[in-house]
Specification:
Pfam families: AKAP7_NLS, KH_1
Largest sheet: 4 strands, antiparallel
Organism: Astyanax mexicanus
Keywords: RNA-binding
Distance between the termini: 46 Å
Shape: elongated
Oligomer: single chain
Helix content: 25-40%
GO molecular function, one term: RNA binding
Number of helices: 10
Protein name: Activating signal cointegrator 1 complex subunit 1
Number of strands: 15
Strand order of the largest sheet: 4-5-7-6
Radius of gyration: 24 Å
């Protein structure tokens, strides 16, 4: 990270600079320090802003915030050092539930400004380490329609017939046809409450989705492939391209509005200015490692060890491959690494176009 241009974090409309400092608090991680960079108003001179959630008690002031249990360790720190430093710096007491028990982190102190300061620091820590959690769910348009699945199966067979000698190409890096989908965005939902909140947010999008589609399914053509890096001889992911048959941008509008809604709610991080609608057909993360399976592992490669493949011949021979057409009629909130009775990902919630 460029120390002259530190990353910014937006929490409830306030902007913070994220300054990296190396400490021995977590194994294989660097703790991050933060400073508030928002505008200073008269209201904020004596005490931090946004103190509405702080209540007065007989002994001073108190604030309780909901935090997923998987994030407790980042507030506690190694041997409790992070919590001790927060309490010492802000002259407050921070109570954290036992690990694995969902509950609230409670901050108490003699002064409202002290509790507000501790609350801000805890919120920034939570937001920072939340971004490091692997995604658990994703929003998508399912593409596992019979015609598209058949087209994908043809694509796989023909690629293996003509390109199996190319570096890194084998049958394990192809997508499961039952799980073909267009990714809209990913989410790290860290407890059941956050899953329920995401489902509620998706339901709130029902009206604008139906207004956009005029209550009708969207006819879609899946044709052509592309990659996102700059070297076709070293590719990790190959995508199928999609386009609405009516030539409209309704699908793009829906995807962009969904991401905007979930980003505003703090459950999704914006990766692109506009959603890059793509259907993964080949991914080196799917590659099976026989040696790992022999040792009792899953056989799947991780990000660090993944082996790229040479896609030059695939792109040349199948650049305009026709996977088929289908009609989209819903948006799914799906759970990663899951399967339902149809072979698609287990759905936590969905809304329909009609």
């Amino acid at each position: 990270m460029d120390i002259l241009r530190p990353a910014l974090i937006n929490i409830n409309g306030r902007i913070y600079r994220k300054n990296l400092i190396k400490e021995e608090h977590y194994e294989d991680e660097e703790e991050e320090d933060f400073s508030y960079s928002g505008p200073v108003t008269d209201q904020c001179m004596d005490e931090p802003c946004d103190t509405n959630n702080i209540e007065q008690t007989e002994k001073g002031f108190r604030c309780a915030i909901d935090v997923p249990s998987v994030l407790y360790k980042y507030i506690i720190g190694k041997k409790g050092e992070t919590r001790k430093r927060l309490e010492s710096d802000t002259k407050t007491s921070i109570s954290i539930p036992k690990q694995g028990v969902e509950g609230q982190i409670v901050i108490t102190g003699p002064q409202k400004s002290a509790v507000a300061s501790a609350l801000t620091r805890v919120e920034v820590l939570i937001e920072s380490f939340r971004r490091k959690q692997p995604f658990t769910h994703f929003l998508s348009f399912a593409l596992n329609h019979p015609q598209v699945q058949e087209g994908f199966q043809r694509f796989k067979e023909e690629v293996l017939e003509h390109c199996s000698q190319d570096g890194g190409v084998d049958d394990t890096i192809f997508q499961n046809p039952a799980k073909l989908h267009l990714t809209i965005g990913t989410l790290a939902l860290l407890n059941e409450q956050e899953v329920m909140r995401a489902c509620e947010l998706l339901q709130q999008c029902q009206d604008f989705i139906r207004d956009t589609t005029e209550g009708k399914p969207l006819a879609l053509e899946v044709r052509g492939i592309e990659y996102m890096n700059d070297d076709p001889s070293m590719v990790d992911v190959l995508y199928a391209k999609v386009s609405p048959q009516d030539g409209s941008d309704k699908l793009q509008q829906i995807a962009d509005r969904l991401v905007e809604h979930f980003v505003a709610a703090g459950l999704m991080v914006r990766e692109w200015e506009r959603v890059k609608l793509h259907a993964t057909v080949m991914n080196t993360l799917f590659r099976k490692d026989p040696s790992a399976e022999d040792k009792g592992g899953s056989g799947r490669q991780n990000m660090k060890d993944r082996e790229a493949f040479d896609a030059r011949n695939v792109l040349e021979m199948f650049g305009e491959f026709n996977f088929g057409a289908c009609e989209l009629n819903s948006v799914q909130l799906s759970q990663r690494f899951s399967s339902d009775c149809t072979g698609y990902y287990c759905s936590s919630g969905h809304v329909t176009f009609s």
